[in-house]
Write a structure and sequence with these properties.
Shape: rod-shaped
Helix content: over 70%
Strand content: under 5%
Number of strands: 0
Radius of gyration: 39 Å
Bound molecules: zinc ion
Distance between the termini: 63 Å
Length: about 170
């Protein structure tokens, strides 16, 4: 009986899946009506956890790993680009601050700017004449232009990254 039980248990999965012939199915069912041990094995084979255990996990497609690694690499490169631009912006601000003699120069510039804005506001209000043109400083203008350019590149990169993440 033990030998036939082993043969029956080896075919229980196929019986549950309906993959045995009509004749074999009849023989297996006949055995199951007489053998409680094999009936217990059949119940386990037919249960959902048992069915899931026999399925195993599917092999991932070979392209999946490569695509995942490529995507991670692209994100790293994007982060490097963004932080690189941030470093360029900081460097340009530092150059501008150095050119303006540090904090005191920046405060002086802020004071001049406030004076200019005040002059323009009183001109708009009709209380004063057109303010004199601001003394031009080509180096500072160049630094500010570069800063605006780098910042625009930075914003474009960030917006692309944002839209890539949301889509
Ligand atoms: Zn049996």
């Amino acid at each position: 009986m033990a030998g036939s039980c082993l043969a029956v248990r080896a075919q229980l999965e196929a019986l549950v899946d309906g993959e045995v012939s009509e004749r074999t199915a009849r023989l297996l069912r006949t055995h199951l009506t007489q053998c409680p041990e094999c009936r217990a094995h059949y119940a386990a084979a037919a249960s959902l956890p048992g069915r899931l255990r026999t399925l195993g996990s599917p092999e991932p497609p070979p392209a999946l790993l490569a695509a995942t690694l490529r995507e991670v690499g692209r994100e790293r490169a994007g982060a490097l680009q963004i932080w690189g631009l941030f470093a360029a912006e900081v460097a340009l601000v530092l150059i501008a601050a150095w050119y303006l003699s540090g904090l005191s120069g920046l405060l002086e510039l802020a004071g001049h700017t406030a004076g200019d804005v005040g002059g323009w506001l009183s001109w708009f209000g009709g209380q004063a004449a057109v303010p004199a043109p601001v003394a031009d400083d080509l180096f500072l203008l160049l630094i500010c232009g570069l800063l605006v350019l780098v910042t625009l590149c930075h914003l474009v990169l960030l917006s692309r990254r944002g839209s890539a993440h949301t889509s």
